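All the exercises in this workshop are built on plain-text protein records. A learned vocabulary of local backbone shapes supplies the integers on the structure line. Once this layout is familiar, the rest of the handout is easier to follow. An example says more than a description, so a record of this kind follows:
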Amino acid sequence: MALTIGCVGCGNMGGAIMAGLARTGGYSLCGYNRTSARMQPLEALGVSALQSPLAVAQAADVLILGVKPYQAAEVLEQMRPGLTAEKTVVSVAAGVSCQRLSHAVDGRCPVVRCMPNTPALVGKGVFALCCEDPAIPAARKAEVLALFNALGVCVELPENKFTAFTALIGAGPAYVFAMMQGLVQAGVTLGFQHKESRDMVAALFGGCATMVEQSTKPLMQLRDDVCSPGGVTIAGVNVLDREGLVGLLVDSVLAANARGKEMES
């Protein structure tokens, strides 16, 4: 029998997860969003729109909590009467710990913490899941991991690694988009139309990502393979090395990690 997946808070991230599951198939899907219009595109994909968080809690086996962090406790309180030991809450609310989630559900069901990144919106997300709640049955844990693996790349992490994951992967799209913007801007400076430059840079990053996935070579070897002696590429790479691009990226991630720890304390 197919699992029923419910989502409370079907905004950008919750809606993206539900849309991805609808396209994957194999699940019965339902959801609730305070702004009912946000449910209409999901209904077109086969997601049943329910009338309250409690109704979703009563109907679903796995409950995705997609609300803002400050709303999590209040919404889980509304869901609490429908929660049983056979159900599992999966929260994508940033910064809401497993301990706080367990307290909010009053221990009625297992909880899982999930940290996605924004490429989940296009089915290319990287998801960190913390499944440390001892109340989670092994079979349900496997089902939850399979659910998110269907939407991108899913890694299981201890909760004490979540801030580091957020600094590296959660914030990672911002670093990548900044690099892309620099190359697009350079393309425009060289005389390409903005759309032309943007399309080429997008294809460049997509192709490089595929090369990394398919190759076992070290990244620096892949870089050096592009650099002919005395050629064009090495001239550009020398500037990046002198300006310390790699060090800047490392420092950016470490600064984000430090800020994340400050916010948790």
